[in-house]
């Protein structure tokens, strides 16, 4: 088994995935019945060039993060996901690693929320998947690479998203995120990727280094449920932000909604329409 078998499986599965099953518009001028390379690359958070080299067997030894992202984007069932890992020379991540798999039941939940801004993060605050309405609201996420996909990194190092914070609120958010990250490290001490994230944050952010070195743990509190968002096309809007915790998979599902009939609801609808047109146009 080697890079050719891995690439061949990715290509065949890509060609067999209907765009509408992963929330993509079909369009009237579409020739391919499956996903285009650029579509799968965007869903998996990798470059189209890298995906091309993977499919053609010219790129070897993809990381476990890339394999998991491709399996997730292709909606592979458990047996095919494990096969994809084996073809790449890896074993599917075990219990000592931060879970990044989105189960079929959670995916069905996300599909039901296809018209609502939703993003899924793992226990280390890495963005696993964001739907089109979320990208329309917060800015496109498919181009984010490496540490830029981590919410703690983006808050402390950048690039930030469109949420507007007052200083005290932002300081509390950062303290809570660092405390949660510390607890994640204690649950997954063998995860080397997690330790690389902490090392990178320590080197890049003096504020993170200060908080990480602090002896006093932060008591978990209810995160802010109302978020102000500065949108470039519709202006500022305030939305409810609810975070659902998937205990068994250690995932965070973040959902943005507005009370029906309000000005914020109208702005949210317009932002999604304008953003989705821009992303698919």
Automatic annotation (TrEMBL):
Coiled coil: none annotated. One of its GO terms (molecular function) is DNA binding. InterPro entries: Cro/C1-type_HTH, Lambda_DNA-bd_dom_sf, MLTR_LBD. Pfam families: HTH_31 (PF13560), MLTR_LBD (PF17765). Residues 30-81 form the HTH cro/C1-type domain. PANTHER family: BLL4672 PROTEIN (PTHR35010:SF2), BLL4672 PROTEIN-RELATED (PTHR35010). This is Helix-turn-helix domain-containing protein.
